[in-house]
Design brief:
Distance between the termini: 36 Å
CATH topology: Growth Hormone, Chain: A
Order of helices and strands: HHHHHHHHHHHHHHHH
Number of strands: 0
Radius of gyration: 19 Å
Helix content: over 70%
Shape: globular
CATH superfamily: MFS general substrate transporter like domains
Number of domains: 1
CATH architecture: Up-down Bundle
Oligomer: single chain
Length: 378
C-alpha cells in the first residue's frame, strides 16, 4: 500500500517545497519595498496587512473548491498564480498597487496552503502512519532556499527583479511537472464517503486559536526578521534574510525528523515544550544585543515551533464527524488571522514603542499556548 502511494507523496512534498520557496522569497524583499516606497514601520505594517487579508479571504473558499474540484487542481492553479505574482513585488512603487498585489499573492498562498494540507492528510491516511511533519519539513526547506536564494542571486550580480523571475520560473517548472503525480479527485472522494457538512466544533476552534499564535510567530519572522536584523542589528540588506533562513533550517531539520518524534513523544508534549522553546528563542533574539544571539534565538524558534502546526493539521484532518475539507480550512483561516492582524499590530507597536518589544510580545503569546494546552488536554 505504501509503495502504491509513493509517487503522490513525492509530488505532494514538492508542492510543499514550492509554497515554502514562494512565500519565503518575499522575506528579503520586505526591506527593498520599505525603502523603495519610503515607509515607516507603521505604514509597512498596514501594507503587510494585505498579504494576510488575501489569505484569510481565500482559505474558507478553498475548502468548497476542494470539495467540488479536488485539491489537485486547486494546488496547481494557486501555485501558478503565486509564481507569476512574485516578481511584481520587486517592481511596484505605489503603496496602493503593492497592497493589491500582496492581497492576491496572499490569496494564492492561502489557497495553496489549504489545498496541499488537505491533500497531505489524504496521503497520510492512505499510508496509515504519521508523515505530516515530513511535508512541512519540505515547506521549511523551501523557506531556506527562498530566503537565502534571492540574496545569493543578487550577490552573484543579478538584479533583484531578474533574481525573482528566476525563482518564479523554477516554481512553474515544478508545478507543471508534478501536477499529474498528485492523487486524482476520485481517489480523494473515496476517503470522504459518508462525510456530510458540519460546522467546526469546539475542538477545531481551539486548534485554530492555537494556530493563530503559532502562525503569528512564524509570520513575525517572515515579515519582520529582515527589518529587525537590518535596522537593529546592522546586517547588510542583501543578507538580512539570514534570520528567516536560520529559522527555516532549524524548522526543516526538526520537521524532517518530526514523524519519528510524533511516534515516540505525545502530541501534547510536542506542543507544550515546543512552545516554551520557541518563546525562549524570541526572548533571546530581542534581549541580547549581539547579532549572533539574534540568529540563535531565531534557530530556537524554528526548533520549538517546527512540529506544532503538523500536529494541529493531523488532528484536524482526523477529527470524527468533521471532514478534512471543513476542519483544515477552519483552523488555517483562524490561524492565518495571526498573519492578518499580526504584521499590522507589530508595526504599530514598533512605531509607538520599538520593534524589539513588538517581537518580544510574541514570546509571551507562545507561553499562553503552552499553558492553555496543559489545561485543555488534561
Amino acid at each position: 500500500m505504501k509503495e502504491n502511494y509513493q509517487v503522490p507523496r513525492q509530488a505532494t512534498l514538492l508542492f510543499f517545497l514550492v509554497c515554502g520557496l514562494g512565500i519565503s522569497s518575499w522575506a528579503p524583499m520586505v526591506p527593498f519595498a520599505k525603502e523603495r516606497m519610503g515607509l515607516n514601520d507603521a505604514s509597512l505594517g498596514v501594507l503587510l496587512l494585505s498579504l494576510g487579508a488575501g489569505a484569510i479571504v481565500m482559505m474558507p473558499v478553498t475548502g468548497f473548491l476542494i470539495q467540488k474540484f479536488g485539491s489537485r487542481k486547486i494546488i496547481l492553479a494557486f501555485s501558478i498564480l503565486m509564481a507569476l505574482l512574485l516578481p511584481l513585488l520587486l517592481v511596484l512603487s505605489s503603496p496602493i498597487s503593492m497592497g493589491i498585489t500582496l492581497f492576491f499573492f496572499g490569496a494564492s498562498v492561502g489557497g495553496v496552503d489549504v489545498a496541499m494540507n488537505a491533500h497531505a492528510v489524504k496521503v497520510q491516511q492512505l499510508y496509515g502512519r504519521p508523515i505530516m511533519s515530513s511535508f512541512h519539513g519540505l515547506f521549511s526547506v523551501g523557506g531556506l532556499i527562498g530566503s537565502l536564494g534571492l540574496g545569493a542571486l543578487i550577490k552573484a550580480g543579478l538584479s533583484p527583479v531578474v533574481a525573482a523571475v528566476a525563482i518564479s520560473v523554477l516554481l512553474l517548472l515544478i508545478c507543471i511537472s508534478q501536477y499529474s503525480r498528485l492523487l486524482p479527485h476520485s481517489e480523494e472522494e473515496k476517503r470522504e464517503e459518508g462525510a456530510g457538512f458540519s460546522w467546526p466544533n469546539k475542538a477545531v476552534v481551539f486548534l485554530g486559536l492555537m494556530c493563530f499564535i503559532v502562525f503569528l510567530a512564524e509570520g513575525a519572522i517572515l515579515d519582520w526578521s529582515a527589518v529587525f536584523l537590518q535596522f537593529h542589528r546592522g546586517f547588510d540588506p542583501a543578507w538580512s534574510g539570514v534570520g528567516y533562513a536560520a529559522f527555516s533550517v532549524a524548522m526543516a531539520v526538526m520537521r524532517l525528523s518530526g514523524d519519528r518524534l510524533v511516534s515516540r513523544i505525545s502530541a501534547r508534549n510536542i506542543v507544550i515544550y515546543g512552545s516554551l522553546v520557541a518563546a525562549a528563542g524570541f526572548f533571546i533574539a530581542v534581549l541580547t544585543p549581539w547579532s549572533g544571539m539574534a540568529i540563535f534565538g531565531f534557530v530556537l524558534v524554528g526548533l520549538g515551533a517546527a512540529n506544532i502546526v503538523p500536529v494541529f493539521f493531523s488532528a484536524a484532518g482526523n477529527m470524527p464527524h468533521t471532514p478534512a475539507y471543513i476542519a483544515i480550512p477552519a483552523i488555517t483561516t483562524i490561524g492565518y488571522a495571526g498573519q492578518l492582524a499580526g504584521p499590522a499590530l507589530l508595526g504599530f507597536v514598533a512605531y509607538f514603542y520599538s520593534l524589539p518589544l513588538a517581537i518580544g510580545l510574541i514570546g509571551v503569546l507562545l507561553l499562553v499556548v503552552a499553558i492553555s494546552y496543559v489545561y485543555k488536554m488534561k
